[in-house]
Amino acid sequence: MEKVYIISRYRAFTERGREFNRRVARYFCRKVILEGKQPIAPHLYYTQFLDDGDERERRIGTQIGIKELREADEFLLILIDGKISEGMYAEIREATKEGKRGRIICMTRKEIEEVME
């Protein structure tokens, strides 16, 4: 089964913003599964037990995520309102360096909210 690494925002200024970002990631993970592929979304998994606000724990989660990105067959980059976070930037840089094939989805917040309903 092909593995698809999900690149999307996690960090936000508010808990409401983080929840929105988690919903986006879950939505696209589901779409990937329905395509018959395995989604890899470290920002959903590791934030369940690592503290994203603690730089050491964030770095650990990021390092594991980059390892998983290297092992993935492709990536899916999700841009909402054209915003790229620091973490996304690192993942994009790594995917480019590795020569991964990928897809990019660009949507506005309003568009993604409508399709996630």
Radius of gyration: 13 Å
Number of strands: 4
SSE run: EHEHHEHEH
Q: Helix amount, in percent?
A: 40-55%
What is the name of the CATH architecture? 3-Layer(aba) Sandwich
Largest sheet: 4 strands, parallel
CATH class: Alpha Beta
What overall geometry do the principal axes of the alpha carbons give? globular
Structurally, the number of domains stands at: 1
Structure write-up:
The protein is of the alpha/beta class and 117 residues long. It has one domain (3-116): Rossmann fold, CATH 3.40.50.450. Helices cover 53% and strands 19% of the residues. The chain has five helices and four strands; from the N terminus they run E-H-E-H-H-E-H-E-H. The chain has a four-stranded parallel β-sheet, sandwiched between helices. Helix 1 links the parallel strand 1 and strand 2. The longest helix is centred in the first third of the chain and has 20 residues, at 15-34. The termini are far apart.
SSE arrangement:
Blueprint: E1 3-7, H1 15-34, E2 38-40, H2 42-45, H3 55-71, E3 74-80, H4 86-98, E4 101-107, H5 109-116
Parallel strand pairs: 1-2, 1-3, 3-4
